[in-house]
Every structure is written in structure tokens, then in C-alpha cells.
Predict the structure.
Amino acid sequence: MVRFYAFWAINDRLDRERLFTQLARFREHGLDGVVFQPRNYPGIPPYLGPEYLALLSDLILEARRLGLRFWLYDENGWPSGTANGEILKLHPDWGARRLDLSRRRRDDALVEFTAPDGGYACLYWQPVSGVDPFQPEGGRLFLELVHERYRRGLKPEAFEQIEAFFADEPESGATWEPQPELAGVAGSSCLLAALGAGAREKLPLLFFDGPGAAEFRVHFYETMNDLLIENFFTPYRAWCRRYGKEFTGHIKGEEHPCFQLPVVGSNSRIQQAFTLPGMDALERFPGNDFFPVQVASAARQFGSGRCLAEAFGGAGWGAQPEDLERYLLWLGRHGVTDFVLHLAQYRLDTPAIRDWPPSQPLALPWREAYAEVLARVRQALSGPEPERPRLVVLPYRALMRRYTAGELAQTNIHDGDHFPLSAAGRLNAELLAFAAGEAPDFELTDDRTWAERGERAPDGRFRLGKRVYRELIRFLEVVETPAWELAEVPDNALLLESAGRRAVRRHRVRWRWRTRAQACRLEFADEVSGLRLNGTPLSGPELTPEQQTRENVLEFTTARPLFRPFVYLRGAFGVYPAAGGFEPGPVTRRPGADLVAAGWPFLDVPLRFRARLTLPPETNRVRLSGVAAAAARIGCGEWRSAWCWGPAWTVTLPSEFVGREEAFELELAPSGFNHFGPHHYVRGDAPLISPDQMVGRRNFADPEEPSTRTWDRAWRFVPFRLPRMLVCRGDENQGEGDGTQLR
């Protein structure tokens, strides 16, 4: 059963009548409860003082009378962990710091070194807002200053009625103000001490590649993750369990792994600490599908199965019922059960009108329809839980090995929507693409969690926490695109196109050699006669170098009038752009990734490449990431895989070809469009090509605007590219598990 809560922003002095009135209206508008959030609270009466707690007690008991659940937000503002600034007043030396990079000399440099470009670089402590999250006693003091005041100061029956405490955006401090000039990572003397002896000298490896960088980065981010859990999340969970409360909320940077790494490490591990895991999903339209699946997975594996989303904040005053319904259904179908609707403003003054609007439901012009929207969502999500028979193990350690500290500055720190396509970023994009979809049939975890807590059950199924699965998908590693070399030079093709605008029998085509002419042959789609090359009659299609010049003109006659008949020059050459057309030239045996630009724009047979690769042990499936072709397959020795194609681009490998260096072959088949066209059609490889598009005549398949030309002089091709990287997986399929919760 889904539940809906008002994220109630208390931004004015507490007034009993206004509070009780709004509480009743939340019930009328279909909500199940409220999250009481001091937000821009003016301190009247003083926050957590006796009068504040007395009035809050009465409000909680009124919620009980109305049948509303009541949750408490754990701060006056956010992020969680400062106790409204009291911790820093008690311990000024607990202020958070970040380890920032500078290319200028500084007196306070912690580490000085020579950057890979030969220039000076140093790392220094940059004070940032907030409390050092790595302080061993910080979490416990926070609980004493906030949660214990609620426990002792509220009426016992009111405290008993509180269902959950909500923590908002705790993190490592990597995104706290001020932002770094170049790059920065989470830091404090506590974290540095936990990293162990010699860590200080290795810190530059977080920013630049070098010997030992991969190993140290994994150690750094996993240690950071462990300390956050140990110092904040673990004591918080223990306190909530002691007093029968849910521990809920969400972290900063949860949207995808490359956003999580510098902010918290692995969110899969953080979510295990919540009793009711959560996420922050703002804006009007659904975002990436990864993070709701990740949060819901942790809830089913290690919790009650319930999880929350702080939802729809910033959707704007123009948001309509259809927008809210679509958004909630997206989250619900990905596993979210509890929706904290962001944001219900206690007082709708000018700052509140501008504060991540809309203020819902009380200030919406369509608030009378709000309960019906929620009712429709309840009904749509009331069915049985879908089967999720697959467990996907995410390669956080592979990401850590590749991630450099400067990447956070290139990431959108609102929701991670933009991130650099670095070595880590490309793998990150693969994981997001894998997780995309409206009805996921899988759950997620990270590699460390699986290694420590996963197991194969006696019946052959795979078990993690309370869940069992039939199939295990392990993302192991990525192999960056090697220097693929052509295994052989196939018969290439150059389309020789006449320039005529109407159907005729006599035709003339031209080609120009980029270098010295070589042996080749002519290929005609039609019966022709009267062949003449540079004014000399030809007896057949075979051409010697001596018969050709730098500039060549071929004349021939077709049996019937034709518009631009298909004529190709065939041979062991490359084809390259030149002066509005193309010309043959020497083949590049080690081309770049773009095979059209590398000399194969009109190719109509597969290209074969070879490279020596070492695929990680346990690899049995490889995805060709970034490839563009019609189909592909991989070979090794006498063995050849089955052909694969998009969107999966995945082949299965025998075990004997992994774990050591092998000579692999890759075959890529090009698109038929590149050979036959219509290359000059303005819409390129359109989904509907009739005979008219092939010759440049307008018909029903063309855009309706009469001024739009259907043909022009530009050449168009379908992308034909080598893969950027090989994504290695170790998949297993065993037993008859149904992906349901164990009893």
C-alpha cells in the first residue's frame, strides 16, 4: 500500500489554530501523514524549547485524532548533522574541511608535488560549511542535541506517536560551499588517519593518474563510505530502533554511481543503514531510472520493503494534475512506496512562493482535485509486486579505480544530470542505460555488498539479505577500446555518382586518386555499353593503374534512361572526402573509432579487426559499448560468437578466453544505407523511404512544409564506429527462484 505525506515547511511562528487547520486540510486532500520540517523557521517560540515542544506535542496528538501519521525532520534547515548550529558552538574545531587542489604555491599546502604536465601542484585544507562528518562523536552528539530533546521534551504519548525521523542530505562535504577552484575531495584529519600510514603522500593519486592510483582510490572511497556509516548512520539507526522509530531520509548525490562516489561512496551500502531507505526526486518530469531502483532494492533486500521519495519539488507553479500523476506512477512502478510531497508551505509569503514551488496541496488552484489524483495513483499501484528474478551487481570498485577528483566539478551537483564522459563516466553511462525502463525485472547491489553478504543458496539460486534471485548479472570491469587493427583489407566501394538531374541513357562519372592509381574494377547495377575511360574504350570492368590518371572520367550508356545509375569503384583502398565528393587513397590499418571518416563510408561487407586483450577472470558476457554498426561478433582462434546487434550489443564468451591475454577478432557489419543511400535525402536514413525519396521527388513521406528541399548536395551516412570500450560481465542463471521476499 502506498502512502502520501506532506513535506510541511514550518517557516513562521507556531500558531496553534493555523497548524491545526492545515493539518485537517492535509487529511481532506488525501494525505496519509506529514513530515514536520522547520524550514526558515524564525525561532518563535525557540526551536526545541519547552513551548515549542509543548505545542508540537498537541499537534502530534491532533494528527493521531485525525488518523494522520507524523514524522519529524531532524534539523532546522538542511543538511542534517549540525543540530541547528549548536555542534559547532560547542566544538568550533569540528568544522568541515575539504581537500582542494591548487596549481599555485600556498603556505598552508598539505602536500606539494609535480603534476603530470610538469607544473607545480599542491593540496590544502579548504574550510567548508557544516560539521566534519568524519568526527567519531559527531553523530552521537547530534542525536543527544536533537533527538533526545524530542524524546524527553515531548509528552510521552506524543513521542510514542512519532513514526519516523527524517535525515536530509548527509554527505562527506564534497559539495559544500565554497566550491573548489579546480577540484576537491572529502577530507579531514579523522579521514586521513583512518586511511593509514603513508596515505598523505598518496593523496595526489585521487586527482591524477599514477602508479598505485587504482588501489588507493578504492581504499579512499571505501574508507570514506565506512566512516560515514560508522559515525552517523549506525548510531542514528540504533537510536531509532531503541525507541521504535523508523530511520528514514536520503543522502546527497544519490542519482548515479559517479555522483555518489565523491559524496558518500556507495549508496547501496548507505541505504542498508536506513530502516526506511529514501531518495530525493525533484522536478516535473521523471528522471533517470537508476536511483529509484537502487533505493527500492536495498529496501527489499535489507528492510521492510518500504522506501520513500521526496517527490515533485521544483515542479513549478505550472505543474498540473497529470504531471503529478505521471511522476508518482513512475516512482511507484520502480518500487517507491512512500511519497513525501515537496513542499507544503506553512506560510505562503514571497520567499515561500519562490521556494522550490509549488506549495502543495494547499496553495494549488487545483487543490480540490488533489485527493482524486492521489486516489488514482493508489489504485494504479495497488496490484501485486512484480517479479524481479535478476540481481545486478554494480562495479563500484571499477568506477573508483577510474574516477578522478576533478570530475565532480564537471557534474551537475543538483541532480547529477550532466557528468563528464571520462573513463569512469562512460562506465557510469552504461549502468544508467542498463537500468533504464518502465518495469524493471531486476534489483541492484554493489560489488562489495555482494562479496560480503551475497551467497548461492543450496537450490542454486542467489540470495542477498531477504531476497532470492534466479539470475545473477555481475558487472566486473571495463576494457578501454584497444588499438584495433584491420585483420584484412576487404573490397571497398566508392559510389561514382553522375550529376544529372533527369533520367538519361548516356552517363558520365568522375573520380580522382588521392595518391598513385592502383588496380581496381568497376561494378554496375545495370547493363551498360560503350565504356570509355578518359576517352579510351574499355573492354571490361577491370582497371589497371596504367589505364587511370590522377583525374578520371568514365562514360557509358545504359539500355534505358536512368537517373544516376549505381556505379561503384571496387578495390583495396580507403575512401575519403574531397571537394564535394570522395576519392580513393591508401588504407589506414589502425583507423580511429569513426570508420566512415577512416575510409569506409560506402562499405557493404563486414570489417574485421584484431587486438590483444586481457578480459577479467569470470567474464562470460561482453557488451560492445559505443559501437555503431548493423551487427557485430567477436572471435578468438577458431571460435566465433553469434552475431549481436543493438540495443544489447552483447556476446557470450567461453571461459577459456578470459583471464589471460588473447588475440581477439572483431567483425562489424555496416548499414545498407551507407552503400545505397539515399545519401542526399535531407532526412537521411528516415523510417520511410519510398522510390521518390531515392530520386529526390517530394511525396507523402516528406515534411509538409513546401519550402523544404528533399535533396541537397550534402552526403549523409549512418554512423559506423568501433566500440569505445568492452563492458565485461560474469552472469549466472541457476535454479528456480522467483525474486520474492524470503519468509
Q: What stands out?
A: The CA atoms of residues 617 and 659 lie 4 Å apart. The first helix runs from residue 16 to 28.
